[in-house]
Amino acid sequence: MDLKGLEERLGHRFKQPALLQQALTHRSFSAVHNERLEFLGDSVLNLAVAHLLYDKYAKIDEGDLSRLRANLVKQQALFEIAQTISVSQYLNLGEGELKSGGFRRPSILADTMEALFGAIFLDAGFDAAAKVVRKLYEAVLAQIDPKTLGKDAKTLLQEYLQGRKIALPTYNVIATHGAAHNQEFEVECLVPKLDVRVVGMGGSRRAAEQGAAKLALEAVVALAPAAAKRARKTTRRDTQLSLPVATVQTPQADLLTPAEPAVGKTA
Amino acid sequence: MDLKGLEERLGHRFKQPALLQQALTHRSFSAVHNERLEFLGDSVLNLAVAHLLYDKYAKIDEGDLSRLRANLVKQQALFEIAQTISVSQYLNLGEGELKSGGFRRPSILADTMEALFGAIFLDAGFDAAAKVVRKLYEAVLAQIDPKTLGKDAKTLLQEYLQGRKIALPTYNVIATHGAAHNQEFEVECLVPKLDVRVVGMGGSRRAAEQGAAKLALEAVVALAPAAAKRARKTTRRDTQLSLPVATVQTPQADLLTPAEPAVGKTA
Predict the structure, then answer these.
(1) Element of type H or E holding B104
(2) Does B195 belong to an annotated binding site?
(3) Which residues of B are catalytic?
(4) Of B67, B142, B252, B256, which has the highest C-beta tally within 10 A?
(5) Which one of A114, A188, A218, A238 is the catalytic residue?
(6) Does B109 have pLDDT greater than 80?
(7) Closest residue of B to A33, CA-based?
(8) Active-site residue A42, yes or no?
(9) Is the CATH number of domain A153-266 3.10.20.310?
(10) Which CATH superfamily is domain B4-143 in?
């Protein structure tokens, strides 16, 4: 297979093409596969991203730097980067993985990205690998909001309300459905000061609370037109909201029509 | 303070001495402290050790490489390295930390080591930092047994017995002492085929089981003189055994005199 296109998108021409081949080889395909390169590449990526964040955010403490890094190197982030450079078309996958669609599985693509970073590190050293990481993360880094990236919806809602001196939300389990091993929780989130009540659903109490918090955040942001645009954009990007915008109701309506609030489901 | 001695033991002369000073400065001493360098240095160390292991163990899979790395970069390992180069005498600590003996606290010394690796990385790049890591880890790396390092006593005992086709041990809680919030567990470990019965104690069932497994391992190794020397050495080093050697009893004696078996306590 012609790998020139991939090398161009990575911004690295391999001196040892065998390393590139190995990085693209899943264990289902060959005994010479990419898992050891992935082990190495995970560390390469961690250091490269740590350095980028260290330089970019001179005033951020190490706790926030760690949170940002964790979010930039996690599977979903790597999967998205793998898609931008079309890694899937170059994968060496075994018969079974091919049939079951392994070439689009996030874990396989994310692992392959790490293996590629490991391969570049072995091929040309850390600086070469860091250059590739910097190039691939350029667009992502330009967009992130260091204050919110990687925070969960409950934390974001709490910080949003605290910043406006509004009393914190309360969460109540209002129903559970299903058998013990497969329960579904319904949790309401109340922000009394703003007359917001929304209901989230999920396979655990925690998940249902997070679902409710996401909806509540949408609701309170919608109520604050001045700050709405900025905050909503931040929220959407960082928590990957794909939930319906919550309706906001008067407390009376809440009590009378419990089925009405927006319901978000979180896996 | 004259830092030449430290630079010599690190094997790195700083072009930017301010970075070295910052790496040695605890947050209790100054607003310009070492925590951001520690964040960076943690990644530097991870990659440097990953690369050393990748090169040294060409046949080990990434799961075992991860286990080895985790053990080499953990606080205790860094603390021991900090002691070999006498980092404590160079620390910049605040009044309170000085009085409470912060200069010998493992967490402070381990964090400082990471900060030093971060500082060297910024001062002269990854290869310079990796060279320092390689030098400091040389003695440690020469000694490790990749099959056992970082495995707990129960795992080691199980693998030892499996390797000799001996039936696996059983663990039973035989007594608990103390109030609910401060309980002490007594757990026996039985290897019936070898007539081994030992008792471990600990603040949790898990800790007591590990204590018992350590003693049982000592006992079964003592029973196998041929392989004893090698395995015992491995065991001592890797699980830091400081327990009395377990006595080995006949099953009858076990039942009649439950107070007799060797008792090991694990925190």
Answers:
(1) none
(2) no
(3) 42, 114
(4) B67
(5) A114
(6) yes
(7) B61
(8) yes
(9) no
(10) Ribonuclease III domain (1.10.1520.10)
